[in-house]
Amino acid sequence: MDSSSEEILQCILSVYDGNENREVQGNDTMISDEYQSSLSHEFEKLMQMLKG
């Protein structure tokens, strides 16, 4: 996992409350401005990593 994917994942996990549905709620302020323009790409990298 590259550093940008790791940072995005950390942001997501920081607001995860452990709910049974595994849903995460937040807003775009929880993710650094430097990733806002490439967020879809960062999510795609995370999804590829999960698929293995």
Can you tell me about this structure?
The protein has helices at 3-15, 33-36, 39-51. With 52 residues, it is an all-alpha fold. Helix 1 (3-15) crosses helix 3. The model has no long low-confidence stretch (mean pLDDT 91).
Give helix % range.
55-70%
Gyration radius, rounded: 11 Å
CA(first)-CA(last) distance: 11 Å
Number of domains: 1
- How many distinct helices? 3
Shape verdict: globular
- Which sequence of SSEs, written as H and E, runs from N to C? HHH
Q: Outline of this structure?
A:
This protein has helices at 3-15, 33-36, 39-51.
Task: Outline the secondary-structure elements.
Elements: H1 3-15, H2 33-36, H3 39-51
Helix pairs in contact: 1-3
Labels describing this entry:
single chain; 52 residues; mainly alpha; 3 helices; 58% helix; 0% strand; globular
